[in-house]
Design brief:
Blueprint lengths: L17 H13 L2 H8 L3 H15 L4 E2 L6 E2 L1 H25 L6 E7 L1 H18 L3 E7 L2 H9 L5 E6 L9 E16 L7 E2 L1 H4 L4 E3 L5 H12 L6 E4 L3 H9 L4 E5 H5 L7 E6 L5 E9 L5 H24 L1
Parallel strand pairs: 3-4, 3-5, 7-11, 8-9, 8-10
Antiparallel strand pairs: 1-2, 5-12, 6-10, 6-11, 6-12
């Protein structure tokens, strides 16, 4: 019989084997003993034996064998997160010492669309020059979506827009690459006063990204703190499309200042000074703690993106 589950486990490290840990991670990921066996090129009884060995070493039951698909127990979920980090770090260690061959294969990169608009083209150009045998596969999405994919192992790194005080899982490393200033914009002449409040803006309504956007979430939090509601006139993707709709008088907009200055509609717009709303958001590069040889590529991308945002700030100041 296994011991009663708790957050404290009495472990004898001598009885634990990496093959057992690897098998447990594969079973949880595949939610099937048979599929895990195929992925590990083992028989199903061999995988079952490794899971049993691991459970005996820990003294707890890790899998709920009464569920379909197969799921971990509550303690199994906690153990899985730790085991996944162990597997990643050991795989990265193997990569580091395997050979000194050039980077090759695939780098799975997630990028917020706003970052892609400002800095991704140059960063990918530098990556190709430095590591021509490495292929980048880029996907875009909101910060919360990219963070979830990163935590689930579907991405190798992600560049996302999140608040300055964002906390990340202990299995992830994150560094800020810069800060984006956002501008509240209106059709030229629609708001007469020099300084406004969010309450003044409320009757005009907003043209914003769909739900999930960090810009929109920040605005909603500030409105809610003041007892105001979000009046959404239209939601659509694409900063230039939003800027054009604001220029047509559809509502107010919230866009990165850098993109506004390069918009074809800039002369038809006013930047609205809002005394109780000074929106900024940080650009974060986030990756697993153990990334192996891909760390060099991620560091190059981070440096290039950081340089692009610094250049954009200097251009605004000039």
């Amino acid at each position: 019989m296994f011991a009663t589950q708790s957050n404290s486990i009495d472990i004898d490290p001598a009885t634990m084997k990496f093959d057992d840990i690897h098998a447990f991670v594969a079973v949880v990921r595949c939610q099937s003993l048979n599929q895990a066996a195929e992925s590990l090129d083992l028989t199903q009884p061999a995988v079952t034996r490794r899971i049993q060995n691991f459970e005996e070493a820990l003294g707890v039951e890790l899998l709920d064998r009464n569920t379909k698909p197969l799921k971990p127990t509550s303690m199994g979920r906690i153990v899985y997160e730790q085991c996944r980090a162990i597997v990643r770090e050991l795989d990265a260690l193997r990569d580091l010492v395997a050979d000194d061959s050039p980077l090759a294969g695939m780098l799975r990169l997630g990028v917020a669309q706003t970052v892609a608009d400002v800095a991704l083209l140059g960063a990918l150009r530098e990556l190709r020059l430095a590591h021509p045998e490495l292929q980048a596969r880029v996907s875009t999405g909101w910060g919360s979506q990219l963070l979830q994919k990163l935590e689930e192992g579907e991405l190798d790194a992600a560049v996302m827009l999140l608040p300055e005080n964002k906390r990340f899982a202990p299995t992830l490393a994150a560094n800020s690459l810069g800060r984006i200033k956002l501008a509240v914009i209106a059709r030229k002449g629609d708001l007469k006063k020099r300084v406004h409040t969010l309450a003044d803006c409320e009757p005009h309504g907003w043209v914003l990204n769909p739900d999930g956007c960090g810009f929109r979430a920040g605005l909603q939090r500030t409105l809610a703190a003041q007892g105001l509601s979000l009046k959404l006139n239209l939601e659509t993707l694409g900063s230039e499309l939003q800027i054009g709709l604001v220029a047509d008088g559809v509502g107010l907009g919230l866009v990165p200042l850098h993109l506004l200055q390069h918009s074809a509609y800039a002369e038809r717009l006013d930047v609205v000074s809002v005394s109780d709303f000074k929106p900024v958001i940080d650009v974060w590069m986030v990756r697993p703690l153990a990334l192996g040889k891909l760390q060099a590529a991620v560091s190059l991308l981070a440096d290039s993106i950081e340089h692009s945002f610094k250049a954009a700030r200097l251009a605004r100041a000039a």
